[in-house]
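Intended use. Records like the one below are meant for learning the mapping from a protein sequence to its folded structure. Do not use them to infer anything beyond what is encoded.
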Amino acid sequence: MMARKKVGLGERHKKILRFLEKFHSENGYPPSIREIGENTSISSTSVVNYYLNQLEEMHYIERESNVSRGIRLVRNLEGQLLKAAQTVTEMFTVPVIGRIVAGEPVPVPSSDFNYYDQETGIDIARSLLPPKEKTEDLFALEVQGDSMIDAMVNDGDIVIMRPITQANNGEMVAVWLADRDETTLKYFYLENGRVRLQPANPLMSPIIIDDPAYVQVQGKVVLVIRRLEES
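Structure written out for the chain above:
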């Protein structure tokens, strides 16, 4: 049984508090238990919970068990009450249904856009989306390739998509090229009866499709989740 520490902040308490403040400041929502452990060198989620319970007893944080990532930072390391407690942001899960190529189109199974693995999803803070954006039909794709790097979409990032079938010029969309049985992520432009799929990489050329009927728009990017760099 783990021995109870005396009242007061230990080094692990301080590490957790620093991480909570930093993570919320950078992301706008609280971290998960696993993220807290990974960034404070605590390998067990039960041990993370142990310290969080202590911080709650000492009134540094508040927790809501029925909310994903339900942690609010109430006081800082110096024990000062925050002027406005960091509120728990509504979270929801978006299914990750496959990969999308941000490069030269490559063949993928035709069912790729329709396969929802219920075990694979990503938690998103509602506050990260536009106020009127509906969350029910959103899906996520992992980006493969670097054709959209100038749009801050890198290899390994996750793009959150809203299903659409028609795109406006300049929108970043996932498209299915029916004649090639290929899929790709690009900026969409309809010009002079042809479709230009424009990469955001000066080293790559646009893809020109003469017959727009072969371009099936599957979704529009509404949010990009950056891949964390390995330390």
